[in-house]
Amino acid sequence: MLLTLDLNDARPLHEQVAGAIRRAIGEGSYRPGDRLPPARDMAQALGINANTVLRALRDLRDEGLLEFRRGRGVSVAGRADGRALLVQRARELLEDARKHGYDRDDLIAIVEELT
Question: What is the pTM of this model?
């Protein structure tokens, strides 16, 4: 799993990790039943604390995307549905809009212009 984080991103690191894993599942890089690398290994590769990765994994478990099994690690429970991926992308778009001085209403107006 090749995950990258943007340290200039204002979102908390655990949300960035969860988003990257969610995208990997949604795009088919990980399929239902596939095991993820241990949290400690992911944390070391990303240069962050293992507790940050564990928090992201717990969030994804709570969404129903991952399942934890004692002695077997973390595996993909199901495929990210379209709505979950869109919500993640919308969050990222809203954050980008804020960086450029636009608020929620401005973003809604832009989307309405496109439709």
Answer: 0.69
